[in-house]
Amino acid sequence: MAFSSSVQVSLDVQVIYTFNKAAFPSDGESQITTALVEYINGLGLGATLYNYKLYAPLNAIPGILTIDINTRPANTDEYSNQNLVVSEFQKLVTTKDRFHFFPEDT
Protein backbone atom coordinates (compact mmCIF):
# COMPACT_ATOMS: atom_id res chain seq x y z
CA MET A 1 0.00 0.00 0.00
CA ALA A 2 1.51 3.37 -1.08
CA PHE A 3 1.18 6.46 1.06
CA SER A 4 1.66 10.05 -0.04
CA SER A 5 1.70 12.88 2.44
CA SER A 6 -0.03 16.15 1.70
CA VAL A 7 1.86 19.20 0.53
CA GLN A 8 0.85 22.69 1.59
CA VAL A 9 0.82 25.32 -1.14
CA SER A 10 1.25 28.81 0.33
CA LEU A 11 -0.87 31.43 -1.36
CA ASP A 12 -0.23 35.17 -1.71
CA VAL A 13 -3.33 37.37 -1.95
CA GLN A 14 -3.58 40.79 -3.59
CA VAL A 15 -6.63 42.92 -2.77
CA ILE A 16 -7.37 46.01 -4.86
CA TYR A 17 -10.42 47.91 -3.69
CA THR A 18 -12.25 51.20 -3.45
CA PHE A 19 -14.19 52.13 -0.38
CA ASN A 20 -16.50 54.69 1.15
CA LYS A 21 -14.42 56.31 3.88
CA ALA A 22 -17.49 57.09 6.01
CA ALA A 23 -18.75 53.49 5.99
CA PHE A 24 -15.58 51.38 5.83
CA PRO A 25 -14.55 50.22 9.33
CA SER A 26 -11.16 51.25 10.71
CA ASP A 27 -10.22 47.56 10.87
CA GLY A 28 -11.68 46.80 7.43
CA GLU A 29 -8.49 45.37 5.96
CA SER A 30 -8.13 43.13 8.99
CA GLN A 31 -11.71 41.92 8.50
CA ILE A 32 -11.00 41.20 4.81
CA THR A 33 -7.85 39.31 5.73
CA THR A 34 -9.52 37.25 8.44
CA ALA A 35 -12.45 36.30 6.20
CA LEU A 36 -10.21 35.23 3.33
CA VAL A 37 -7.71 33.35 5.52
CA GLU A 38 -10.59 31.38 7.05
CA TYR A 39 -12.08 30.62 3.64
CA ILE A 40 -8.82 29.59 1.93
CA ASN A 41 -7.51 27.56 4.87
CA GLY A 42 -10.89 25.84 5.13
CA LEU A 43 -10.57 24.35 1.65
CA GLY A 44 -9.95 20.63 1.70
CA LEU A 45 -7.12 18.57 0.37
CA GLY A 46 -7.05 18.77 -3.44
CA ALA A 47 -9.79 21.42 -3.52
CA THR A 48 -9.82 23.94 -6.36
CA LEU A 49 -9.87 27.59 -5.36
CA TYR A 50 -12.66 29.19 -7.37
CA ASN A 51 -11.86 32.90 -7.49
CA TYR A 52 -15.49 34.03 -7.53
CA LYS A 53 -16.08 32.34 -4.16
CA LEU A 54 -13.56 34.65 -2.47
CA TYR A 55 -16.02 37.55 -2.68
CA ALA A 56 -18.93 36.08 -0.69
CA PRO A 57 -17.18 36.17 2.73
CA LEU A 58 -16.69 39.93 2.28
CA ASN A 59 -20.34 40.85 1.80
CA ALA A 60 -20.78 41.63 5.50
CA ILE A 61 -18.03 44.30 5.52
CA PRO A 62 -19.60 47.73 4.98
CA GLY A 63 -18.13 50.43 2.77
CA ILE A 64 -16.49 48.28 0.09
CA LEU A 65 -17.49 49.72 -3.28
CA THR A 66 -15.37 47.66 -5.66
CA ILE A 67 -12.93 44.86 -5.02
CA ASP A 68 -10.61 42.67 -7.08
CA ILE A 69 -8.94 39.67 -5.48
CA ASN A 70 -5.96 38.06 -7.15
CA THR A 71 -3.91 35.12 -5.94
CA ARG A 72 -0.66 33.38 -6.72
CA PRO A 73 1.19 30.43 -5.29
CA ALA A 74 4.16 31.65 -3.26
CA ASN A 75 7.39 32.08 -5.20
CA THR A 76 5.65 32.64 -8.51
CA ASP A 77 5.68 35.90 -10.42
CA GLU A 78 2.18 36.74 -11.54
CA TYR A 79 -1.02 37.35 -9.61
CA SER A 80 -4.17 36.09 -11.31
CA ASN A 81 -7.92 36.11 -10.82
CA GLN A 82 -8.15 32.65 -12.37
CA ASN A 83 -9.23 29.53 -10.50
CA LEU A 84 -6.34 27.70 -8.86
CA VAL A 85 -6.30 23.93 -9.34
CA VAL A 86 -4.08 21.78 -7.13
CA SER A 87 -3.35 18.08 -7.14
CA GLU A 88 -5.21 15.64 -4.92
CA PHE A 89 -2.33 15.71 -2.39
CA GLN A 90 -2.00 19.50 -2.16
CA LYS A 91 -3.73 21.91 0.19
CA LEU A 92 -3.90 25.66 -0.26
CA VAL A 93 -3.00 27.71 2.81
CA THR A 94 -2.37 31.37 3.54
CA THR A 95 -1.57 33.62 6.49
CA LYS A 96 -2.25 37.26 7.29
CA ASP A 97 1.28 38.28 6.33
CA ARG A 98 0.76 37.03 2.76
CA PHE A 99 -1.79 39.78 1.95
CA HIS A 100 -1.06 42.89 -0.10
CA PHE A 101 -3.63 45.72 -0.12
CA PHE A 102 -4.10 48.51 -2.63
CA PRO A 103 -6.91 50.74 -1.33
CA GLU A 104 -8.40 53.84 -2.89
CA ASP A 105 -10.97 55.89 -1.04
CA THR A 106 -13.73 57.71 -2.88
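the 2nd protein, sequnce then structure:
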Amino acid sequence: MRRIPIRLRLTAAFAVVMTLVLAGVGVGTVAHFGAAFDEAIDANLAAHTRELATGSPQWTGPLVNEPDLAGDLDRLFSENVHFD
Protein backbone atom coordinates (compact mmCIF):
# COMPACT_ATOMS: atom_id res chain seq x y z
CA MET A 1 0.00 0.00 0.00
CA ARG A 2 1.30 3.41 -0.91
CA ARG A 3 1.35 6.13 1.65
CA ILE A 4 -0.39 9.43 0.96
CA PRO A 5 2.16 12.16 0.22
CA ILE A 6 2.85 14.67 2.99
CA ARG A 7 1.77 17.58 0.79
CA LEU A 8 -1.65 16.03 0.27
CA ARG A 9 -2.02 15.22 3.97
CA LEU A 10 -1.03 18.76 4.99
CA THR A 11 -3.39 20.27 2.41
CA ALA A 12 -6.27 18.11 3.61
CA ALA A 13 -5.57 18.95 7.26
CA PHE A 14 -5.37 22.65 6.48
CA ALA A 15 -8.63 22.50 4.52
CA VAL A 16 -10.41 20.74 7.39
CA VAL A 17 -9.12 23.21 9.99
CA MET A 18 -10.00 26.24 7.85
CA THR A 19 -13.49 24.84 7.23
CA LEU A 20 -14.03 24.50 10.97
CA VAL A 21 -12.65 27.98 11.68
CA LEU A 22 -14.76 29.65 9.00
CA ALA A 23 -17.87 27.76 10.09
CA GLY A 24 -17.25 28.83 13.68
CA VAL A 25 -16.76 32.45 12.70
CA GLY A 26 -19.93 32.33 10.60
CA VAL A 27 -22.01 30.87 13.40
CA GLY A 28 -20.60 33.39 15.87
CA THR A 29 -21.31 36.29 13.53
CA VAL A 30 -24.87 35.20 12.88
CA ALA A 31 -25.52 34.69 16.60
CA HIS A 32 -24.04 38.07 17.51
CA PHE A 33 -25.94 39.86 14.74
CA GLY A 34 -29.18 38.16 15.77
CA ALA A 35 -28.76 39.18 19.40
CA ALA A 36 -27.88 42.77 18.48
CA PHE A 37 -30.79 42.95 16.05
CA ASP A 38 -33.21 41.67 18.71
CA GLU A 39 -31.92 44.25 21.20
CA ALA A 40 -32.33 47.06 18.66
CA ILE A 41 -35.89 45.99 17.87
CA ASP A 42 -36.75 45.75 21.58
CA ALA A 43 -35.30 49.22 22.23
CA ASN A 44 -37.18 50.69 19.27
CA LEU A 45 -40.47 49.10 20.36
CA ALA A 46 -39.96 50.30 23.92
CA ALA A 47 -39.32 53.85 22.68
CA HIS A 48 -42.44 53.80 20.54
CA THR A 49 -44.47 52.39 23.42
CA ARG A 50 -43.27 55.17 25.73
CA GLU A 51 -44.04 57.73 23.04
CA LEU A 52 -47.55 56.40 22.54
CA ALA A 53 -48.13 56.22 26.30
CA THR A 54 -47.49 59.98 26.64
CA GLY A 55 -50.51 60.68 24.46
CA SER A 56 -48.77 63.01 22.02
CA PRO A 57 -46.73 61.06 19.52
CA GLN A 58 -44.35 63.00 17.33
CA TRP A 59 -44.78 61.47 13.91
CA THR A 60 -41.40 61.71 12.27
CA GLY A 61 -39.37 59.58 9.99
CA PRO A 62 -38.64 59.02 6.34
CA LEU A 63 -42.22 58.15 5.44
CA VAL A 64 -43.67 61.23 7.12
CA ASN A 65 -41.19 63.99 6.29
CA GLU A 66 -40.10 63.00 2.78
CA PRO A 67 -41.59 64.54 -0.35
CA ASP A 68 -43.72 62.54 -2.71
CA LEU A 69 -41.10 60.09 -3.95
CA ALA A 70 -43.58 58.11 -6.04
CA GLY A 71 -44.48 61.24 -7.99
CA ASP A 72 -40.81 62.02 -8.52
CA LEU A 73 -40.17 58.50 -9.83
CA ASP A 74 -43.13 58.72 -12.19
CA ARG A 75 -41.87 62.06 -13.51
CA LEU A 76 -38.32 60.75 -13.98
CA PHE A 77 -39.58 57.61 -15.67
CA SER A 78 -41.82 59.51 -18.07
CA GLU A 79 -39.03 61.97 -18.93
CA ASN A 80 -36.35 59.32 -19.57
CA VAL A 81 -38.23 56.40 -21.09
CA HIS A 82 -39.58 56.76 -24.60
CA PHE A 83 -41.56 54.08 -26.33
CA ASP A 84 -41.13 54.65 -30.05
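Residues 6-80 form one domain. The two ends are 75 Å apart (CA to CA).
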